Please model this.
Amino acid sequence: MVAKIGSKAPNLGVSKWVQGLPTNIDKEKDNVVLVEVFQVNCPGCFLYGIPQAIDIYQKYRKEGVTVLGIATAFEDFDKNTIENLELLLTKGEVIGETLKALSQYGQLVDGNKLPYKIPFPVGMDLLKKDDEPMSKTKIDEIIQANVPGFESYSENQKSEIMERVKQYLKSKEYSAQTFEEFTLRGTPSTIIIDKKGILRDVAFGTNDFLEENIKKLLKE
Model:
């Protein structure tokens, strides 16, 4: 099932809730749900996405907002693992590019630890070994989800885009269920579901309108 804005949101694909009680979208009816999707090896997730999600959690958790974290993997499969997620959540330890970037910005304590704890439930995306053969349908799906106005590009540009997608598919070891069902473009990403379980917004990168959107949905 591919999630569509304005339609009922599918449940998150979760292999394990590493922190917090197991839950899902269908169990959070009557609450606005914010899902913060990140990768352990993603500096931007820790510089922007996760701090913003924590801020929303602290401000609105008593007003009917549920915040959930989903650690996914669409690259760097050796680093974006459940073991490294468990290290992050139990000991606050970060790894890889996240460690390098946060060290550079002076945002760690004791050498490799976050100065804060993630306070909301966090699960690991459901990863499946990607043994599907590369197909034109799969290539077209990725282009449609990630390249608006693809048909307006020149033939040379189209060929370059298709080649990049093919190289991505060749390097892709796993499919991550939540990442793919919500056709996410990268991390950090936010998913917002309203009180009736309807998908209202999906955004990639820094989201300047996140709090505004949350407040609007709380009034509905």
In short: The chain has a mean pLDDT of 93.
